[in-house]
Amino acid sequence: MSILEFSVQKVFSKLQLSLESSLPAGKIIVVLGPSGSGKSSLLRLLAGLDRPDRGRICFNEHVWFDAAKRICVTPQERHVGYVFQDYALFDHMNIEKNIGFGVEKNRREEVSRYWLNRLRLNDYAQSFPTSLSGGQKQRVALARALAANPQLLLLDEPLSAIDFSLRREIRRELKQTLKEWNKTTILVTHDLDEARYFADELLLLDDGAVLQQGSVDELFDNPGSIRAAKILGWHNQLEVNSIQGEIAQGSWGRLMLNRQEDSVQASLLFRDSDIELERAEDEAGIAIVNSCTRNINSTRIELELPNNIHIDVLKHGEHVLFEEGTSVNLKLKDYCLFHPS
Fold first, then answer.
1. How far apart are CA 172 and CA 28, in angstroms?
2. Where in the chain is the domain with CATH 2.40.50.140?
3. How many CB atoms lie within 10 A of CB 226?
4. Per-residue confidence at 248, pLDDT binned at 50, 70, 90?
């Protein structure tokens, strides 16, 4: 049964939203999309901080907004928890008071103490937000949102302000807390790794519209369009003239695929981690190595194909370096094909 349904339109100064979706109960729904696609605007519409120009929003069969019937439930009446990107903590209040801010006065101390303990913040109860790290602020903001016992939790880029070195630990804690809370959460991100890690359901947003929706595996492995594929990390694109068997050919040359195909005139998209490289004999390969950069846990290689076409290769956990100018052949471990409509 769907718990949240919306079909809304809203025109901002630089963005026009036209959104329609239904989302399942008790899940972590991740809204993924590039900057400016409307992710934060969607959260503000659901929270009641912005009002759609037209449309309808329902939660658990309760109507929050209906332009035709002139219904617009206030943010306070929606009982939505909202963790903003910058956390929006009250600097003049200590952590205990921040957490209890939205709780009834007679239960404030009890509830604050519960969440201080639950999120391991007891040592900071009397501290002020300005003295905390990014990870500690994130936990305080989450505790404040959950302390009010919301029906729906909205998280806007919750890990963006946290140091990279702490991000893995913090995201593990956050996911565990959300799963134990066991209510519906909508988490906004532009980070593919975060989307894969958190999502039970993925909502792909682009240019103010829902581009695709479904499970993580469904969207990441089978994007429904070239634009969706690009957003989901299938960055390399080659235009194919023909595919026969395991060989794809185009103006850029030919390469090997990992399965049999029979196709003409298609766009071939693949991720930078889905490419196998092999040094060519007699310098007669399809591509030339333009650069090869070794990072801490990976190697990034830029290749140039005929007709000034460039693709990127990423090798995780491998440190096989190719000298600049090396001739190589390619084989794709995975790919998507899109045919002209």
1. 14
2. 236-338
3. 14
4. very high
CATH number of 2-225: 3.40.50.300
Residue 69 has φ and ψ, to the nearest 5°, of -100, 5
DSSP state of 316: E
Residues linked to residue 282 through DSSP beta bridges, in sequence order = none
Do the beta carbons of residue 95 and residue 121 sit within 8 Å?
A: yes
Quote the pLDDT of residue 182.
87
Round to whole Å and give the CA distance between 94 and 276: 54
The CATH 3.40.50.300 domain(s) of the chain lie at 2-225
pLDDT, mean of residues 260-278: 91
Do residues 187 and 145 make contact, with C-beta atoms less than 8 angstroms apart?
Answer: no
Q: What CATH number has the domain spanning 236-338? A: 2.40.50.140
Cα–Cα distance for residue pair 195/186, rounded to 1 Å: 11
The rounded distance, in Å, linking the Cα atoms of 271 and 314 is: 9
Helix, strand, coil shares of the chain, percent, nearest 5, are 30, 40, 30
DSSP SS3 for 167:
helix
Give the CA dihedral 186, 32, 331, 265, nearest 10 degrees.
Answer: 130
The tokens describing 162, both together, are 């946290």
CA distance linking residue 195 with residue 95, whole number of Å: 29
Paired tokens of 155: 């998280």
Contact 92, 83 (CB under 8 A): no
Strand locations in the chain (E): 2-11, 16-24, 28-32, 54-59, 62-66, 71-72, 80-83, 152-156, 184-189, 201-206, 209-214, 236-250, 253-270, 275-279, 287-294, 298-305, 309-316, 327-332, 336-338
Burial 89-121 (b: 16+ CB within 10 A, else e): beeeeebbbbbbebbeeeebeebbeebbebbeb
Task: Give 191-197's long-range contacts (Cβ < 8 A, gap of 24+).
Answer: 191/159, 192/32, 192/232, 192/233, 194/30, 194/159, 195/30, 195/32, 196/220, 197/171
The whole-angstrom separation of Cα 302 and Cα 312 is 5
Give pLDDT tens digits for 180-202. Answer: 888 899 999 999 999 999 999 99
> If you search the block for the tokens 């460039």, which residue do you land on?
310
Considering the entire predicted model, what is its pTM?
A: 0.89
